[in-house]
Automatic annotation (TrEMBL):
Alphabetic keyword roster: Repeat
Protein name per UniProt: PRD domain-containing protein
GO biological processes: regulation of DNA-templated transcription
InterPro entries xrefs: BglG_antiterminators, CAT_RNA-bd_dom, CAT_RNA-bd_dom_sf, PRD, PRD_sf
Species annotation: Pseudobutyrivibrio xylanivorans
Domain PRD: 67-171, 172-277
Length: 277
């Protein structure tokens, strides 16, 4: 049982478990309807309960929860419901930062100051399912607030969704996407060709680079070395991959293992051949 401390709206309130002083944000359809301070309520599995104990980058969680318009808390909570349905297990601690981001995004949209996201196409491919989950925000904002949200903003929401399923901050996910974009740009420069972002080769290349960067950051090494074979069969792509791995390593301040070169070269060769078709 929880004691009501503050009602935010019909679907959200702040409550305290009996015999404790710890505050929680409790969300669920009708949870706050007709409730009064100090009233005791029962919380079931249908409700989502968020601890307000820890702080966030924006400061105290309770202050943040009470400063955000409850409609954005609801939207963020529902987006995470979608993430949970897609990924089974998520970290709901991203809910308040996500709600805060969406509220700020809507303020920008209403002021005609929409934020450009240069990595939208990369995020859509790299974090495909997360992007699909984030797209639910489009109808929610249109239906409830009459606001049209761009794909660029959906991309940023997708990064928050990604951070809920990975032990990775939004800034780290953004760094990953940026590193991938840098790598793709280098591939385009090496091949002298613009890669079609809708092509299967682009999809495969981005996903390979994503996992290559993740392995590099974690210090993991590919067991099978294909370098001699690839260098013999696709020398130009191998040389290009060597230069790219060296440059990307400097950018990441990490040493990219030599075995990665051959695998990246395979994807560069595939891109080059596809572009010639």
């Amino acid at each position: 049982m929880y004691r009501v401390e503050k009602v935010l709206n019909h679907n959200a309130l702040i409550g305290i478990p009996e015999n404790t002083t710890q505050e929680y944000l409790i969300m669920g359809k009708g949870i706050g309807f007709g409730k009064h301070i100090s009233e005791t309520i029962e919380v079931t599995d249908e409700h989502k309960v968020y601890s307000l104990k820890e702080s966030t980058d924006r400061g105290d969680k309770k202050e943040l929860a009470t400063s955000i318009d409850p409609v954005y808390l609801e939207i963020a909570n529902e987006i995470l419901d979608g993430a949970e349905a897609a990924f089974n297990t998520i970290d709901r601690n991203v809910m308040l930062p996500l709600a805060d981001h969406i509220e700020f995004a809507v303020k920008r949209i209403k002021s005609n100051e929409q934020l450009k996201n240069p990595l939208t196409d990369d995020i859509r491919v790299l974090f495909h399912v997360e992007f699909k989950v984030a797209e639910a925000a489009r109808d929610m904002l249109a239906d409830r607030l009459g606001v049209t949200i761009s794909d660029d903003e959906i991309g940023y929401i997708a990064l928050h969704v990604h951070s809920s399923i990975m032990d990775q901050a939004v800034s780290q996910a953004m760094q990953m996407a940026d590193a991938v974009r840098q790598c793709v740009s280098m591939v385009e420069e090496e091949t002298g060709k613009r890669i079609d972002t809708q092509s299967l080769s682009y999809n495969r290349l981005l996903n390979h680079i994503r996992y290559m960067i993740a392995r590099t950051i974690r210090g993991e090494v590919i067991k099978l070395d294909m370098n001699d074979y690839i260098n013999a069969s696709a020398a130009n792509s191998f040389q290009a991959a060597t230069r790219i791995c060296q440059e990307l390593g400097r950018s990441l301040d990490k040493q990219i293992h030599e075995a990665e070169i051959g695998y990246l070269a395979m994807h560069i060769e595939r891109v080059a051949l596809d572009e010639m078709d």
